[in-house]
Specification:
Helices cover 16% and strands 31% of the residues. The protein is built from 1 helix and 2 strands, in the order E-H-E. It has a two-stranded antiparallel sheet. InterPro entries: Cu-oxidase-like_N (IPR011707), Cu_oxidase_CS (IPR033138), Cupredoxin (IPR008972). Keywords: Metal-binding. GO terms for molecular function: copper ion binding.
């Protein structure tokens, strides 16, 4: 994937919006 974030940096997290995946732990760190 390519992300264009010229004015934003830091530590974030991603997660699924599908309830069954979220309950199963589909989430994690995302460092820009």
């Amino acid at each position: 994937y390519n992300f264009n974030v010229p004015d934003q940096a830091g530590t974030f997290w991603y997660h699924s919006h599908l309830s069954t995946q979220y309950c199963d732990g589909l989430r994690g760190p995302f460092v820009v």
